[in-house]
Amino acid sequence: MQQINFERDSYENFNDYNDLMVQAFGIGCSLCESSEIILVLKDSPIPIGRLIKQQAKSLSDEEVEKLIAEPLQQWQKFDDLNSEALKPTFLCAECFNTLNIEGKL
Ligand SMILES: [Zn+2]
User: Fold this and answer.
1) In angstroms, what is the span from residue 41 Cα to ligand 1's centroid?
2) In a domain, 1, yes or no
3) Where are the alpha helices (DSSP H) in 4-92?
4) What is the mean pLDDT of the chain?
5) Is the pLDDT of residue 90 over 90?
6) 32 in a domain, yes or no?
7) Confidence class of residue 56 from pLDDT cuts 50, 70 and 90?
8) How far is the CA of 98 from the centre of ligand 1 (A)?
9) Residue 94 located in a structural domain
10) Main-chain phi, psi angles of 23, to 5 degrees
11) Containing domain of residue 85, as a range?
12) 2 band by pLDDT with thresholds 50, 70 and 90
């Protein structure tokens, strides 16, 4: 496994709505690319699925595109910064367990 900076307390549950970011944008675990993401680094932008879900009315495709354009850039920037800092943005259960075990040694 590559060199990474991992702190247990820096992560929170990733609860996107309907797994939208996985389904629509193909995001995955930052280490193994699994789509079974359970954790995200704290201070992330709002997950896109939840953002769309929060809207009071249903949106046209065009409105959705407009709504998510900026958050998508924020996610991209967030992920870029994290990878520069060697921090995984998203973690699946398996990678998380591995990191947790290594951290205890
Ligand atoms: Zn993984």
Assistant:
1) 14
2) no
3) 20-25, 48-54, 61-84
4) 93
5) yes
6) yes
7) confident
8) 9
9) yes
10) -70, -45
11) 8-98
12) low
**Residue 28 CB neighbour total at 10 angstroms:** 16
| pTM recorded for the entire structure | 0.91
Q: How far is the CA of 31 from the centre of ligand 1 (A)?
A: 5
Determine phi and psi for 28, rounding to 5 degrees.
-155, 180
Cα of 78 from ligand 1 centre, angstroms: 18
In a domain, 87, yes or no: yes
| Distance from Cα 36 to the centre of ligand 1, integer Å | 8
How far is ligand 1, taken at its centre, from the CA of residue 81, in Å?
A: 19
58: tokens are: 């249903």
How many structural domains does the chain have?
1
- Cα 30 to averaged position of ligand 1 atoms, centre (Å): 7
How does pLDDT run across 10-32, given as a tens digit for each residue?
999 999 999 999 999 999 999 99
Separation of 35 CA from ligand 1 center, angstroms?
8
40 strand-pairing partners: 12, 90
